[in-house]
Structures are given as structure tokens and as C-alpha cells.
Design a protein that fits this description.
Blueprint: E1 5-13, E2 16-21, E3 24-30, H1 32-42, E4 47-51, H2 63-71, E5 77-80, H3 86-94, E6 99-102, H4 104-108, H5 110-120, E7 125-133, E8 141-145, E9 150-155, H6 156-166, E10 170-175, H7 187-196, E11 202-203, H8 210-218, E12 224-227, H9 229-232, H10 238-247
Parallel strand pairs: 1-4, 1-12, 4-5, 5-6, 6-7, 7-10, 11-12
Antiparallel strand pairs: 1-2, 2-3, 7-8, 8-9
């Protein structure tokens, strides 16, 4: 059975779980390890831990916060933020992290994706693609780097094809235009990337209602959905999300 996955996202700043809108106006919503443990217990399929200011601050991911998170969960964990070398990836995998996610480093040094896939296996390497609408590019979506603060001048769909050819195992596209707004994922962007590659694509940025999860999978052709605000603020439980999708004939792991 090919299940569709529910993946809570832990945006972490200075070791604390935060949530914002369009990557700014961040609010402290707790301890990442405690929240991760609760999501793992509640039936999340996987978790994503993003050290959202690591790249801007030119530092590596906070390993202590990652270690505490790994120690209290029983589901796969993907970690991103500040990853810029195979050594950094090796350190995280040694802690028990299942996968790493790269964005800025992949754009700056595409060969790092190939090297990492060769050394650690494609299944361990996710490329995150932060996007913003830009009608000047062929797909209408531009790749953003440095925590969404700078346009890379790359077409998001063309970049997705490129990272697939480099050996990435999954793609995590996040719309900066919809992030944190809870008005729904950017379906057009998600579908454009999903249809351009054969890799699993994880929809991200904008979930605010159960219907949005369904739309991302059915209309956006996503293999999984990342959730943050609707989970962190208690709008819906993981069980409610899965029950809703199951009622609409989307296969989920119960």
C-alpha cells in the first residue's frame, strides 16, 4: 500500500520551536523535543526539524536540540538548516537522523547533492526548494535561498529536475507566498514540481484546514503533506487529519 504521509514540521530558532507567517513574525510555541515526542506518539508518519536561522547566521545545525529530539521519537526525522558539507551530514546521521534536507547549500554547490547521495544514499538526501512567485521565469516560480530572504534567479521546476538528476531522494517545496497563512498550499507550484519529477514531493506552506491536505495530495500530486500551524496550535490532531483523508479514500497509515 502506498500511504500518503502526514509530517509535522518543527521550525526551530535558537533551540526553540517557532511558527511565523511568510518566514517572519515568529512566535515561540515550545520545546522542539517535547512537541516531537507528542507528534510521534500521536501517529505522525515522520517529522521534519528545520533550524531556520542556521544559514543566515552562518552556522551549523544545533546538534544538541537535534539529539534531544531524536532521543524521544520513534519515527523518521529529517533535519535541515545550515547543512553545507558531507561532514555535517555525517554528524547528523550519526545522531540517528534518518534524512537531511538542503536548500541554500544545494543551490550554491549542486555537486554536494551528488556527493551526499553517493556517500549516504539518495534515500537520505532531501532537497528543500523555497519558492516565490515570479512571472519572469518559465514556471512562474523562483527558488529562494538564505531562509527565504534572497532570490536565486533559478526556475523552481527546472531546479527540481536538476536535483533529481543529481541524486536527491525527495523534494520539499515550500511556498513563501502561502507559508503560515493557513489559506492552503500553493497547489499550482506543488503540482508543477511533482509532475516534473519522479521523486516523492512533500507539499509545504499554508495548511489551515483538513481540505487543504486533500487538495495537496489530489490536486497538487504530493506524496506527503507538511503541517505546522494547524498542528502546533491544536486546530487538528494527527488522528483527525488521517481520519479525514481516509474518509476521502486517501490511503493513510492508521
Amino acid at each position: 500500500m502506498d500511504y500518503r504521509r502526514i509530517i509535522p514540521c518543527l521550525d526551530v530558532k535558537h533551540g526553540r520551536l517557532v511558527k511565523g507567517v511568510n518566514f517572519v513574525d515568529l512566535k515561540d510555541v515550545g520545546d522542539p523535543a517535547e512537541n516531537a515526542a507528542a507528534y510521534s506518539e500521536a501517529g505522525a508518519d515522520e517529522l521534519v526539524f528545520l533550524d531556520i536561522t542556521a544559514t543566515i547566521e552562518n552556522r551549523k545545525t544545533l546538534l544538541d536540540a537535534v539529539r534531544r529530539t531524536v532521543d524521544c521519537i520513534s519515527v523518521p526525522l529529517t533535519v535541515g538548516g545550515g547543512i553545507s558539507s558531507c561532514q555535517g551530514i555525517e554528524e547528523l546521521l550519526a545522531l540517528g537522523v534518518s534524512k537531511v534536507s538542503m536548500n541554500t547549500a544545494a543551490v550554491r554547490h549542486p555537486d554536494l547533492v551528488r556527493q551526499a547521495a553517493d556517500e549516504f544514499g539518495s534515500e537520505s538526501i532531501t532537497v528543500a526548494i523555497d519558492t516565490a512567485k515570479n512571472p519572469a521565469l518559465p514556471s512562474g516560480f523562483e527558488v529562494m535561498v538564505r531562509g527565504g530572504t534572497k532570490g536565486a534567479g533559478l526556475d523552481a521546476v527546472q531546479w527540481a529536475r536538476k536535483v533529481e538528476s543529481l541524486g536527491a531522494g525527495a523534494i520539499l517545496p515550500t511556498s513563501m507566498d502561502t507559508d503560515g497563512r493557513q489559506t492552503g498550499y500553493d497547489i499550482a507550484m506543488t503540482r508543477a514540481i511533482a509532475d516534473a519529477v519522479s521523486l516523492p514531493v512533500i507539499a509545504s506552506g499554508g495548511a489551515g484546514a483538513l481540505e487543504h491536505l486533500y487538495e495537496a495530495i489530489v490536486d497538487g500530486h504530493a506524496d506527503a503533506v507538511l503541517v505546522a500551524s494547524i498542528a502546533h496550535f491544536g486546530t487538528y490532531s494527527i488522528a483527525q487529519m488521517k481520519a479525514y483523508l481516509a474518509q476521502r479514500d486517501i490511503p493513510v497509515r492508521r
